[in-house]
Amino acid sequence: MDKEKLQGALPEYFAPWVQELGLAVESFDGDGVTLRLPQGERLSRVGGMLCGQAMMAAADTAMVLALINHFGEFRPCTTVQMNTSFLKPLSNQDALVQARVLRAGKSLAFGEIDLRGAADGKSVCRASVTYALL
């Protein structure tokens, strides 16, 4: 796997509105990937806070890329369950979205995602997910 292949998966497999999030692959390893979600006016609420909808979409997208990294190729999948906890607001900084595959079997995959401030490293959102592998 390489960074360019993971970055190239964004326009290939995701809807145009997901691409508008501006996600960029920061790093990857054997267990997962880390994306950067740029903070900006289009994704912010009052007070410059990154909106929860953008965080959830970024988390879901990061996990699909983590599965691509895990399998070495894209496998069709769909989100079955996503449990998200917002820990604190994220204002005036990008988010780092770290997705890790916990287990991937023949028909289901399980993962966890941590979103944290890119500048301060503080966790702002945690999600656990289940995917059906099609």
Overview of the structural elements:
GO terms for molecular function: fatty acyl-CoA hydrolase activity. The protein has 134 residues and is an alpha+beta fold. It has 3 helices and 6 strands. The chain is globular. The two termini are 21 Å apart.
- Can you identify the CATH superfamily? Hotdog Thioesterase
Number of domain modules = 1
Order of helices and strands: HHEEHEEEE
Q: Please give the number of β-strands.
A: 6
How many individual helices? 3
* Helix percentage range: 25-40%
Radius of gyration: 14 Å
Distance between the termini: 21 Å
InterPro entries: ACOT13 (IPR039298), HotDog_dom_sf (IPR029069), Thioestr_dom (IPR006683)
Protein name: Phenylacetic acid degradation protein
Organism: Ramlibacter tataouinensis
Keywords: Hydrolase
Please specify the SSE layout and strand pairing:
Elements: H1 3-13, H2 16-19, E1 24-28, E2 32-37, H3 52-71, E3 77-86, E4 95-104, E5 108-117, E6 123-133
Antiparallel strand pairs: 1-2, 2-4, 3-6, 4-5, 5-6
